[in-house]
Amino acid sequence: MAVPESTSRASPHRRVQDLDPFFEQTLVEAWRQTLVEDTKVVELGKARYTVRKTPKRGLRQVDFVLDGNEIRGLEQNPDTKSRWAQMAWSGKKVMQFLSEGRYVAHVVDGKVALYGRRAGTGR
Predict the structure, then answer these.
(1) Percent of the chain with pLDDT over 70
(2) Other CB atoms closer than 10 Å to residue 48's CB: what's the count?
(3) Integer CA distances (angstroms), 17 to 23, 34, 94, 112, in order
(4) How does residue 121 score in pLDDT terms, banded at 50, 70 and 90?
(5) What is the DSSP string of 50-64?
(6) What is the reported pTM?
(7) Residue 43 pLDDT level (bands cut at 50, 70, 90)
(8) Half-sphere exposure of residue 78, counting CA atoms within 13 Å on the CB side?
(9) 106 has which bridge partners?
(10) Is a pLDDT exceeding 90 seen at residue 89?
(11) Which of 22, 18, 20 lies closest to 6 in space, CA to CA?
């Protein structure tokens, strides 16, 4: 599945979660290429991003740019106590996505869930 070319235009005033549906489509594509196809390079539109492994656990990660925002896709560590880790441990393909040091979304078996700010908290 190709990612629309419009995802590469910079727009620094938009939160990464506000990029729907391109944002979700791009996350699923990064997840699919990294965890399902086990590629060494993720192709998003015309851009190519290297899949690396974390030094300690050997988890796959890919850093890419979407609409001027730096995003990191990180394979879920199955050895933690989160519900996402339990899913990964049971065999599901789970990838967390971070931007500016915060978790913004995850993809589990091809389904995206966005993490939004909680009402009234500013987070």
Answers:
(1) 78
(2) 10
(3) 7, 21, 19, 11
(4) very low
(5) EEEE-TTT--EEEEE
(6) 0.77
(7) very high
(8) 12
(9) 96, 113
(10) no
(11) 22
Q: What local confidence, expressed as pLDDT, does residue 90 receive? A: 85
CA distance 95 to 60: 9
Q: Which tens digit of pLDDT belongs to each residue from 48-73?
A: 999 999 999 999 999 999 888 899 99
DSSP state of 85: H
Question: Which contiguous run of DSSP H or E holds residue 88?
Answer: helix 83-89
- Cα 97-22-95 angle, rounded to 5 deg: 20
Write phi, then psi, for 81 (nearest 5 degrees): -105, 10
Grouping H, G, I as helix, E, B as strand and the rest as coil, residue 43 is: strand
> Distance between CA atoms of 43 and 30, rounded to whole angstroms?
8
Work out the average pLDDT over 91-117: 90
Q: Among 67, 65, 60, 66, which residue's Cα sits nearest to residue 31? A: 60
Tokens encoding 105 = 């979304």
Single-letter residue type at 18: D
Domains of the chain: 17-114 (3.40.1110)
